[in-house]
Amino acid sequence: MSIEVRNITKAFDDFKALDNVSLNVDDGELVALLGPSGCGKTTLLRMIAGLDFVDEGEVWLNGENVTGKHIKQRGVGFVFQHYALFGHMTVFENVAFGLRVLKRNERPSEDQIRKRVHELLDLVQLDWLSKRFPAQLSGGQRQRVALARALAVEPKFLLLDEPFGALDANVRKELRRWLRRLHDELHVTSIFVTHDQEEAMEVASRIVVMDKGRIEQVGTPEAVYDRPASPFVSSFIGNVNVFHGRLQGGSLDTGGWQLPIRPPGSDDVGDDTPYAAYIRPHDFELLKSTEEKLPECRVKFIQPMGSVYRLEVVPEHAASDGLPEVIDVELPRRDFRALNLSVGERVYLRATETHWFEAGQPAVTGPR
Amino acid sequence: MKRSFSILPGFRLASGITLFYLSLLVLIPLCALVWKTTELSLDELVATLTNSRVLASFRVSILTALAAALINLFLGFVIAWVLVRYPMPFKRLFDAVIDLPFALPTAVAGIVLAALYAPDGWIGSFFTELGIRIAYTPLGIVVALMFIGLPFVVRTVEPVLQDLDSQLEEAAQSLGASPWTIFRRVLFPPLIPALLTGFALAFARGLGEYGSVIFIAGNMPMVSEIVPLLIITKLEQYDYAGATAIGLMMLVVAFIMLLVINMLQAWTRKRTGKL
Questions:
Q1: Do A87 and B190 touch (CB under 8 A)?
Q2: B63 inside domain
Q3: Of B172, B176, B190, the CB nearest to A88
Q4: ipTM > 0.85?
Q5: Which of A56, A356, B23, B117 could cross-link with B134 by S-S, CB 3.0 to 4.6 Å?
Q6: SMART domains under this entry (chain A) (predicted)?
Q7: CATH code for position B135
């Protein structure tokens, strides 16, 4: 049950929501559409569902062109951010709705409906609430009811629009794992939309990163985190420090402040070529003293975060546009303890892994 | 909502104002009404109220108000539906026109309607050909009350309809429901309380309406004479006690009707778990 999107374009008045987007989702995958608000991820999901229609391009579900077809004919289950439960029906009737509206000759008997609904409510662990109304449930419970309702019609595809967006942080975490397990059990090809990169990393088997109506990168959570295809992906997935500068000998010169790193395989690249180095906070080492020629910084702020320590360090002897004002560094608790740093101390900064981008384009990624 | 102590200050002041205001405006006049009625002995009271002309006027008032409110319930709903859900030219103009019956002096409305629906009027002549007389019959009263009561249903249903989440429809679509099923099972039920409120308001207004009705009703005793008119007639004959007795009876009828509708609403709310 694959999903294929071919060169979709969609505009709302002057605003181009989707710009020539293509995507393949294989049978049984759980894919996240990730991006900032307004990037077109929800629009893309609604196109696949048949809740909105494309201006150009095609949607293929399970090898069939469904571009002009109504959501009813696409066999998709849809889960909304704000649940969209029917407030005047009990939980049971909500879940039963999809079965009750079937044509008479396809509709299961009342006994079968009851059995099926209770099975589904068991699956989402809410059978004990079957007689309640949606208004009497918590947000997490409502979303699980919404999921059971969508599953009742045995959809071939499950599409979820920010399913946990309206929930508390704790409930969200719990439901995330739960959705992952549910998917492992049911193997329904699923796409969910989120703006939370942590959520995408935790739940999805593949992540589609979107920005401004385009797909920036498609890959496993590991790939998009470790090998970002663009500066946008690098800075959207996780925190990152950005250094703009020009190659100068063995260093990146940000204007009077050198970071002694060079893109791998850049030996034949001439001096003065502009590059940007994207370095994650946990890809720094701090040293109290060194023989190497490393840039000097001063510790400005130390915040214990449990398993890691978050530090802000300020580059010394530097006044450059290419540098961040403060550099975020994350040290594992053990390393921090071993260093025994305090605010105001001088440290030397070493980058252990860097994402390189040449003039905004992806170039090479690798250590040093 | 559970009862809880309010953290907002001014409860005593606010409740004091509420009680004072309600007493001044509603309770005291109503008490005066009851008190005035006690001038009549019980026999006189029963005689006044069981007078065949009085009973007939009650029948006319209640039935016409009920009929008009029912028609308004249906048409008001359709109008609100169209105004909210479909794009159309001059929508704001139409929207403003709905409120006109609120603003127009009722006597003006009555005279206009009477002129239009009279057997030789623009609209009336058309119905005359069909053998239907509207003006100067109970049918004319219904027309006047339809005019007066329309805004109540439209204005109570409109905001609820606007607030209906479009995702409810999309969810129902994704579950395979047909448009008619979606309307019947998803969109309509949440509107029932608002429809009942609109109906109750239109009905209550129709029951007490005087100005617009008397011009079109013909005011024939036993046939098209409404209760408010009868009260005025009694007053003109200096039968104050009799007038108040009828007024009181009217009050009781209205109260019972509104109570029933309120109970209906409470029941629908309970069914949706919103209590």
A1: yes
A2: yes
A3: B190
A4: no
A5: B117
A6: AAA
A7: 1.10.3720.10
Q: Which candidate from A49, A78, A135 shows the least CB-CB separation from B273?
A: A135
Q: What is the pLDDT of residue B43?
A: 87
Of B176, B186, B271, the CB nearest to A86: B186
Q: Please state which of the ranges A67-71, A129-133, A165-169 shows the lowest mean pLDDT.
A: A165-169
| A-chain residues near B272 (CB < 8 A) | 87-88, 133, 135
Per-residue model confidence as pLDDT tens digits over A280-322: 999 999 988 888 888 888 999 999 998 999 999 988 876 666 7
Please check whether residues A204 and A314 belong to one and the same domain: no
> How many residues would you count in chain A?
368
Q: Nearest CA to CA, how far is B76 from chain A (Å)?
A: 22
Q: Is the pLDDT of residue B128 over 60?
A: yes
Q: Over pLDDT 90: what percentage of chain B?
A: 29
Arithmetic mean of pLDDT, B39-67: 89
Reply yes or no on whether the pLDDT at B4 is more than 60.
Answer: no
CATH classification of the domain holding A120: 3.40.50.300
- Do strands A157-161 and A189-194 pair parallel, antiparallel, or not at all (unpaired)? parallel
Residues A68 and A158 in one domain: yes
Average pLDDT along chain B: 87
Say whether both A246 and A204 belong to one domain.
no
Residues of A in contact with B172 (CB under 8 A): 86, 97, 101
Digit-coded pLDDT (tens) for A89-109: 999 999 999 999 998 888 999
Find the residue in B nearest to A71 (Cα).
B174
Contact yes or no for A82 and B165 at CB 8 A: yes
Domain count along chain A: 2
Question: B189: which chain A residues are within 8 Å (Cβ-Cβ)?
Answer: 88
Chain B CB contacts of A149 below 8 Å: 171, 175
Q: What share of chain B is helix, strand, coil (3-state, %, to 5)?
A: 80, 0, 20
Same domain? A73 vs A148: yes
The whole-angstrom distance between B187's CA and the closest CA on chain A is 9
Ranking A268-277, A279-288, B162-171 by mean pLDDT, the lowest is: A268-277
Burial class (CB in 10 A: 0-12, 13-18, 19+), B18: exposed
CB contact under 8 A, A132 and B273: yes
Task: Say whether residue B270 is in contact with chain A using an 8 A CB cutoff.
Answer: no
- Residue A362 has a pLDDT of 45
Give the Cα-Cα-Cα angle A8, A10, A16 (nearest 5 degrees). Answer: 120
User: In the block, which residue shows the tokens 């193997």?
Assistant: A187
Task: Examine the fold and report which residue of A235, A264, A285 is the final residue of a domain before the chain moves on.
Answer: A235
Q: Are residues A214 and A329 in the same domain?
A: no
Q: Which residue has the tokens 């252990």?
A: A352
Could you tell me the residue range of the domain that residue B266 belongs to? 45-271
Query: Between A and B, how many CB-CB pairs are < 8 A?
Result: 72
CB contacts under 8 A, B 140-159 vs A, are: none
Q: A250 and A289 share a domain?
A: yes
> Considering the domain boundaries, does residue B104 fall inside one?
yes
Do the domain assignments include residue B24? Answer: no
- Percentage of chain A beyond pLDDT 90 is 49
Last residue of a domain, one of A201, A235, A269: A235
Catalogue the E-assigned strands of A29-102: 30-34, 56-61, 64-65, 76-79
Alpha helices (H) in chain A, listed in sequence order: 41-49, 91-100, 110-123, 139-152, 169-186, 197-203, 221-226, 231-236, 333-339
The pLDDT assigned to A368 comes to 37
In a domain, B7, yes or no: no
Q: How crowded is the C-beta side of A359, counted as CA atoms within 13 Å?
A: 3
B104 touches A at CB < 8 Å = no
Residue of A nearest to B173 (CA): A72
Our CA angle for B60, B63, B66, nearest 5°, is: 140
pLDDT of res. B124:
84
Interface mutation target, options A45, A88, A117, A156, chain B, most CBs of B under 10 Å:
A88
Q: State which residues form the domain around A286.
A: 241-367
